[in-house]
Amino acid sequence: MTTRTHVVLVHGLGSSAKVWQDFSALLEGDPDLSDRIEVRTFSYDSPRTRLRPDRRIARIDDIADRLGTWLSTNCADGAPIVLASHSQGGLVVQRFLARTLRRANGRQLAHIKHIIMFACPNNGSNFALSLRKLLIFWRHPQERELRPLASRPVLEAQQTVLEKVVAADEASDTKCPIPISAYGGETDNVVPPHTAVNPYAGGVIRGDHFSIVKPPDRNAESYAALKRVLLDPNVTHPQPPPAAPPASLAQHLVPTPRHPAGSTDDEAPFSVTLPLADGQLYGEERRRIVSSILSAGPGVHVLAGPGGSGKSRLALETATRAVAEGRDVWWVRVNQLSACMRQVARDLHIPDSQADEAWKGNGSQSDLVWRFLNQATRPWLLVFDNADDTQRLGPRGGSVKEATGWLRPPQGPQGLVLVTSRIRDRDVWGNWSEVHGVPLLNETDGASLLMDRAGPGAGTTETARLLSRQLGGLPLALRTAGKYIRSVRESGVKLGTADIKDFASYRQAWARRSASPAGTRGADTEESLGLEKIVDEVYGISLGLLERRGLSQAAPLLKAFACLNIAPIPYRRLLEGPAVTESSLWTEFPLARRRDVIMGLHDLGLIELDQRRDVLSLHPVVHGILRDDQDVKRRRSDYYALDVRMLLDAVRDHDPDYPDAWPVWAVVTTHAMEVARSVLRPDGPTRDRSVVTSAVELTRLTCRYLLVAGHLGPARELLLPIIENCASYGFHEGDREILGLRHEKGRIFLEVGDLAAAEKELRQVVNRRREIFADRHHDTLASRHKLARAILEQGDHRAPEAEEILRSVVHDEKWVRGEEHADTMVVRHTLARAILAQRRAFEAEPHLREILAIRLREWLPGTPETLHVRETLASCLLEQEKVEEAVLLIDEARRDAEQPENSHPVMRLRYCGAYALLLQGRVPEATEALTSLLADQRQVLGDAHPEVRLTRDLLGRVHKSL
Helix 311-324 and helix 284-294: axis angle, to 10°? Predict the structure, then answer.
């Protein structure tokens, strides 16, 4: 009997297995597939809310782990598996893959032959805004992890999948090749197609977010995509997974190093014996690299990675095993290259007469030694440790890849060469060298290293994992932290102001250190944490190498990046503006040199590039240490001046009010908030008026984006302390710069429904702006308009007062800007709303139709203001009982909306639509719509908001009528 392929369907957030009913029925009834497949659905707990206090809503990590358990139980017959996911289900699948690989269980994935994802929110910066369309309750733990400002776990899992699954060439404990296809719906407004497809293979197909997994028949494009996978011979007749390799010989043999016990790195300059191993080698992937090098045959292997990543420890493990296998091994310290190679010459029994002549300059030292190496009859391993200056291994005046210097490929069958270096660029080493990137430790291996170094009583395995994650799996940082904790515990002496005694307290101290603004570590964060060695080892040597290459700008640029947030940095946008050219941190920094610096930092492992998204990331240890750099402390003003101006360059010509600018703001906002808070504080880094003024403007623009994106809480948290403390950085609340912030403060009060506070704040701003600018200045006009809005929103009884102000503002806007300017159109709309509030719908309607016609001609139909105009016109039509026309208008507007379902503009449209349902007599549908709307409004706006009260009152009246 033919083994059937398991087709496992995984649903999305707030959904259930029912979403796959149409797909399942078509698959099971397909004559081409029915005898080939067995359709199963993996269902998990994802309610919209949980009212029982004794139960919680599962997190994505929990669901991913349960998927692994479910597959091992329900698909344990060894048959091929195809996973198909919808929406968040794709993130669950990716997290399952990543967590399985991090536990070194990659071979367990070998039966999964294909993964196909529909409408998966892959974009770690932007997707959560759209995903919230599916949610009712804002505090849902699955949703919270997916927000743009908290998407790191999503991006980490995605990176692991791309590197260890998509790019994998064979199955092992830490990788497993599985084809992944991703499809987006062409009309999907929840997860836009580009977000659903990137960074995987796939494409855009017909359907929206929901219909994409509800094919009407077998001709549907989504069905055809899955069917192609299921008919693929590689899926139905796969090759058997490779057998696990035998355990490492190093686990069974006692190594016999060639050096006497007690020798150290400080031996005589000509010593070529092995250094002492400092503990065991951690990490399955690292052990696999050792095995692959020793089994590869003659050749040159380069272990490349940043400082502190454990290159030398990996080389030492290789050398120790080589000794145990009977090889002659030489350990050459490249900073003692000539003396060490002279000792190699002695060990090779090169006649002293020949060696002396070569070392006197009467012949080539390297040619002489390599002639004898290639003639050796015993197997040998030559290690060049810390070859960061590659020219030392090349010919005089030439490149190492010419293979005529100290580093060259062995010509005989016995030779093996191993190099450790920070240089990852394969072009540097030549195509005759195999470059192995040295991987950082995963959480489990990092925890083992920490627990080994810290000793008993330092904490649980789980707290060690958390600290390992916080330190980014960097072996040097983990060893340092473990030793530091042990020294404090064994000595009983408190070494600083922080009482560090275990993994948890070390984590807290590191978090305090990293959270402090760059260059401001105070008394409560003065604990060294034992990091003095790391400062030089991780980045000092590497930056010195770049400076010797003529890239002196690398060090200050990296420190400027460290003053930003730890989130991915949009380096291209930051570096292409004039701020870089004008910075006092360097004398010149042309565009071509900027590219060289970025690539140099990447080659040395100081940054990781994602060139697809034009972002880079700093390792958390590099980020944390550089924020305390002495140069940053001395020149805080210069570093923050550069950051402020680079961020302003990045968003120049990207008005946060318009959706086409939101992708830019999505990657800039976390950094803008970090820098604004650091500069605009009592102990800020600079009193340079131009820098502080620029930081205030950056704050204002960032707040505008947060408001339009619906992030009212972060907007308030950013803005209010900066206004309150304005005197501490040289401003008064009546200064024009601070009035710009206070205007946004009034907008926040408006959005949250604190209308009295909004009116008070905006009236003060209007009065002060009149004193500074006069009535017709664009800033004064903006505040006059918002003041009128604050009055209008307080109830129909104040509509006449608002109308009077608005007519005056419309008159002045037309005079200053013209009839169809964006600001004029906004004020004209508010005036129409004031007229409508006074039951003059017949008068408001022609104004609204004219406004909408202009907006649709000049702006995209889904912009927030255009949606608002359409909602007002629909309300006007409903007021006149033109219900059918209003419904058509509302439906069209909701289709055009680019915001999530719980955004303010869309929620207003939803209220209008529910009201229209009532007028049509469709009471059950209206009740359901109002109930759903009320839940969203409460989560986003709060119970006290006027619109929440309006919806609640209407729903109450409906219930009473029933």
Answer: 50
CB atoms near residue 616 (< 10 Å): 21
Q: Within a 10 A sphere around the Cβ of 695, how many other Cβ atoms?
A: 31
40-43, Cβ contacts within 8 angstroms, sequence gap of 24 or more: 40/6, 40/7, 40/8, 40/9, 40/74, 40/75, 41/8, 41/9, 41/10, 41/11, 41/17, 42/8, 42/9, 42/10, 42/11, 42/17, 42/67, 42/70, 43/11, 43/16, 43/17
- Residue 2 pLDDT > 60: no
Residue 187 buriedness (CB in 10 A; 0-12 / 13-18 / 19+): middle
Residue 529 has pLDDT above 80, yes or no: no
Q: What are phi and psi of 116, to 5 degrees?
A: -125, 125
Strands 5-10 and 81-86: parallel
Task: Please provide the DSSP assignment of 452-479 as one string.
Answer: HHH-TTS--HHHHHHHHHHTTT-HHHHH
The answer to whether the CB of 347 falls within 8 A of the CB of 330 is yes
Quote the longest CA-to-CA distance of the chain: 111
pLDDT at 368 over 60: yes
- In this structure, what token pair is assigned to residue 286? 């690292």
Tell me the backbone φ, ψ of residue 408, rounded to 5 degrees. -155, 160
Query: Rg of the chain's alpha carbons, rounded to an integer?
Result: 33
pLDDT of 124 higher than 50 = no
Cβ 226 vs Cβ 84: under 8 Å: yes
Query: Who contacts 675 (Cβ-Cβ below 8 Å, separation ≥6)?
Result: 563, 564, 640, 643, 644, 647, 695, 698
The predicted-structure confidence for 17-60, as pLDDT tens digits, reads as follows: 889 999 999 998 888 888 889 999 998 877 655 444 445 677 88
- What is the three-class DSSP state of 248? coil
Residues 629-641 pLDDT 10s: 888 989 999 999 9
Residue 128 has pLDDT above 50, yes or no: no
Residue 836, CA distances (Å) to 833, 878, 950 in order: 5, 11, 17
Output the DSSP codes for 636-671: HHHHHHHHHHHHHHHHTT--TTSGGGHHHHHHHHHH
Q: How many CA atoms lie within 13 A of 866 on its CB side?
A: 24
The SS3 call for residue 816 is: helix
DSSP structural state of residue 282: P
The answer to whether the beta carbons of residues 81 and 75 sit under 8 Å apart is yes
- Sign, Cα dihedral of 304, 305, 308, 310: negative
Contact 17, 43 (CB under 8 A): yes
Could you report the per-residue pLDDT of 197-246, keeping only the tens digit for each?
877 878 889 999 889 999 999 999 999 999 988 888 777 665 554 444 33
Whole-angstrom Cα distance, residue 97 to residue 104? 11
CB 142 within 8 A of CB 60: yes
| E strand spans, 537-585 | none
